[in-house]
Amino acid sequence: MKSRSRWRRALADLRSLFFWPILAAALPRSLGYGLLKHLASRSGDFEPEADAAWRGCRLIVERGDEVEWKYRYRLLRWVERADTFLTLLRSRRWWARQVDLDAQWPNPARPSLLLTHHWGAGHWVWGVLQAHGQRAWFVARQPSVADLGAGRIALWYGALRGWSLRRIGGRGPLYTGGSARRVRAAMAAGDSVVGMLDLPANAGQRPMPVTLLDRAAQLPSRLIDVAREAAPTIAVFSCAFDFSSGRRRLRLRVLPDGLSTAEVLAAYAEDLSACLADASECWMMWHESSAIFTAPPRAVTP
Predict the structure, then answer these.
(1) Does 265 score more than 80 pLDDT?
(2) Tens digits of per-residue pLDDT, 7-20?
(3) Which H or E element spans position 181?
(4) Domains of the chain: which residue ranges?
């Protein structure tokens, strides 16, 4: 029975991580996106994650339609998986037709810290950054099976995503756990670093208070400390997703030089607040919201 259960989990991972995303990526754009919308309409896929995200969200922001919110949350998860293969199967010219740019590009002669969020769909962004002179590493936590699926196939998919960063224009991941030294070395070599700070902070990451969606919260600041030592340009960007058309929008703003760590983090939180106010269902960290927001949650009626 245990062997049969393992096979069922492996087949489920194979379908959700490889078969359906590859099929959606291989089809013409309109048909592929239609397939992803059909998959998202099935409540069984990503339902535990969608339930946990909805519970976290409804304590912080005004509630909308639960069914539609969860559908969009699931759709974005499918889009992210299909993007892994779209970046490998489609040319940069094709991607340029799918993306609207609203960007103030950093000086490519200087290393930059590029801060973004677990919001929207941004796996495709590496080629765009490279085209504007930004060869960047990605600071990330080492993925585990539980992050993506239930077995070895999930680890294969995680390895593929790491490889695809290099294939589409990134330097690759810098996994946390002693990453400060590697961040300094990357910037000393003239490379940029992409990081996401919208996650629970442990003591070693030096959590600092911020205002997020007009509520008290705390976010890790250690990456900013490390980057400021190398005196790079610091920018904040987001990768929005249009649910009706499937188009993307990259918005990037360079922060003024000389800001303190607290000022950089405040600017980051302001940008994240705007993203969450625009499309709360696009944030992948609602299940961790109780560890990010420090004020007591508002009362919610059933």
Answers:
(1) yes
(2) 778 888 899 999 99
(3) helix 179-188
(4) 2-292
CA 133 to chain centre: 21
Spatial distance between the Cα atoms of 191 and 171, rounded to a whole number of angstroms: 9
Q: Cβ of 173: how many Cβ atoms within 10 Å?
A: 21
Residues 217 and 210: beta-carbon distance below 8 Å: yes
Reported as a single tens digit per residue, the pLDDT across 12-65 is 889 999 999 999 999 999 999 999 999 999 877 789 999 999 999 998 987 779
**Local confidence band at 137 (pLDDT 50, 70, 90 cut-offs):** very high
Q: How many CA atoms lie within 13 A of 30 on its CB side?
A: 0
Average pLDDT of the residues of the chain: 89
Could you tell me whether strands 192-196 and 207-212 are parallel, antiparallel, or unpaired per DSSP bridges? unpaired
The helix/strand/coil state of 161 is helix
Burial class (CB in 10 A: 0-12, 13-18, 19+), 41: exposed
Which structure tokens are listed for 170? 């990134």
Backbone angles phi, psi at 43, to 5 degrees: -65, -15
